[in-house]
Amino acid sequence: MSVHVSTLQARISGESTASSPLSTEEYFVNMGPQHPSTHGVLRLVLRLDGETVREVVPVLGYIHRGIEKMGEHGNYRQFVHLVDRMDYLSALANNWAVTMVVEKAAKMETTERIQAIRTLVCELQRIQSHLLWWGVFGMDLGGFTPFFYGLREREQICDIFEKTIGARLTMNYIQPGGVMFDIHPEFVKDVKAFISYLKPKLVEYDALVTDNVIIQERIRGIGKLSAERAIALGATGPVLRASGVAHDLRKSEPYGVYSQLDFDVPVGKDGDCWDRYWVRMEEMRQSVRMIEQLIDNIPEGKTFMVKPAAKIKVPAGVHYSHLETARGILGVLLVSDGKEAPYRIHCRTPNFNNLWCIGEMATGGRMGDLVAMLSSIDIVVPDIDR
Amino acid sequence: MGVITDKLPGVLEPVPGGSVLLTAVDQLINWSRSNSLWPLTFGTSCCAIEVMMATGAARHDLARFGAEVARPSPRQADLLVIAGTIVKRMAPRLRTLYEQMAEPRYVMATGSCAICGGPFMYHSYTTVRGADEIIPVDVYVPGCPPRPEAFFYGLLTLQKMIKEGESIRHPGERRRPVLAALPEGMTLDDIRKEMQDLLSHDANVNMAAAVAEGARYSSELKDF
Ligand code: SF4
Could you check whether the bond before residue B104 is cis, i.e. omega within 30 degrees of 0? Predict the structure, then answer.
């Protein structure tokens, strides 16, 4: 009985429960690939000692579609629509990453208007992606309400995208040389209406979930990831920033029109689930700030610089460029032999590295907290397997 | 009572002190099955967001069609919605999931990936070109991804199918053969040869040329 009480106290005071004096025979549990909380078809093999997790090994490949290999068979335009399907919650940022490396390598000109539109839609999608994460995070913790709230707001952004882009999920909008269509005449009005609608909602979210003492007790102090380990594992995005490293490509290597915008990079302290939660909530506010600064100042100009059917050729060599999606750094390495199709294309996807942090976070923790940790990383499995 | 009898196939016979509902057992069973489909939470990729999440959420509200009780266990579910790409590694698991579901079970293939491989139909060495290569499919919903409305149309089609479908005397009438039979005279060696041909012009790498290319690139990288 005394053992039980002491572990409970340790749990409340936020200490690690790893070394319970009772240890039992270790056993393996297979989680996934069909599991409601693995967000797709991720498979985790867990080595458990009672309720304590000793080791987590992700097993990949259940949605490996060979996107990189497929890229070698088509031209650059055709590759853009394939990356939509990688991290489908930030499809626009994926489009932009490929576009950026092609434009940089082929020295294509863009206008201020193109860059402003790209920045604007990417920030909208960041909000959209975080809203979905917020809903699913709530669902994984056992509450269904956040799911309905988050998806309700997400639908509004879907409507805005649908008017301009024509798609709700797989956008294929940002192309080498510009954006597919100019923004819809009602785009500015809609975005303003949405922003003024979202701001009170974010306060409501805080009242509902963030300030909820049950949530705080549940996610504070679990799944800790130190800054050194986060860097060593290659974590990026909110996972890295929650561990206290203020690394954001939008600040450190500004692309688009981020250098003209005024925004903060939210940083956590302990790198636990709570910090990751807080960083994402704060990022939504920062995105709102950026959109507010930008929405009235979209410069005039052309939105597509090359002819739609123009052949894009990239000079031979190795080209790389990266940007910050909603989940971290997406880098695209392009090896070109001067032809219309890439010789080799490789994506350094944020989710792959972020996923491996689960071993660091979960080891020594409780089995019951694993789902909360996994959800706080916010993984998209097709982005890991590609 | 009124609401239910409006939609339930049958006749209301007025008798002194109330009324009696006359219906056929088949009709009653089919009617209740079609209106209480429990889907399995199964989504492999992009389509899952639209088909499993957006439909279940506030605006589209799957509950209007009685199909909102998503079950994580195949043993409790009777509708398998294949939302997303199926790759060769996942295919045996999908088959297992299907076989774990209790009869009667229904399958919807949503999205072009589940229908034919979708954007990954050409040049991909892992995707299964359509879920119907592994399990029988009842309703196909095209789109990449299908809109939630499209999914609802598919669901309503399935409900119609169930209502007109099986009877106690002919159970399982709806089902189709699981695997298409191989053409006559086809041997295992023929299949192997075909695969070899396919690989040699698709995924195989000419090693000598690759080494030469690699050397060229590394020399270029030095100047880079
Ligand atoms: S059909 Fe399109 S949206 Fe659906 S899983 Fe396939 S690629 Fe993704």
Answer: yes
Q: pLDDT tens digit string along B107-159?
A: 888 888 888 888 888 888 888 888 888 888 888 888 888 888 888 888 877 87
Q: Do A382 and B97 touch (CB under 8 A)?
A: no
Confidence band for B29, pLDDT divided at 50, 70 and 90: confident
**B111 CA: nearest ligand 1 atom:** 1
Upstream peptide bond of A33 is cis (omega within 30 degrees of 0): yes
Is there a domain that residue B14 lies in? no
Please list the ranges in chain A whose pLDDT falls under 70. 1-23, 38, 308
- Kindly state if the Cβ of B118 falls inside 6 Å of ligand 1: yes
B117 lines ligand 1 (CB under 6 A): no
Q: pTM to 2 decimals? A: 0.80
Give the total number of structural domains in chain B: 1
Contact predicate A272/A222, CB 8 Å? yes
Atom of ligand 1 minimally distant from the CA of A88: 8
| Min Cα–Cα distance to chain A from B146, Å | 10
Q: What is the C-alpha to C-alpha distance for residues B213 and B205, in angstroms, rounded to an integer?
A: 12
- Residue B47 Cβ inside 6 Å of ligand 1? The answer reads yes
In a domain, B217, yes or no: no
Asked if residues B134 and B127 have their Cβ atoms less than 8 Å apart, the reply is no
All domains in chain A, ordered by first residue: 8-59 (no CATH), 67-385 (1.10.645.10)
Residues of B within 8 A of A75 (CB-CB) are none
Closest residue CA from atom 3 of ligand 1: B145
Domain region containing B158: 39-206
In this prediction the ipTM stands at 0.81
* In contact, A156 and A179? CB cutoff 8 Å: no
- Residue B66 covered by a domain: yes
Tokens of B12: 């209301």
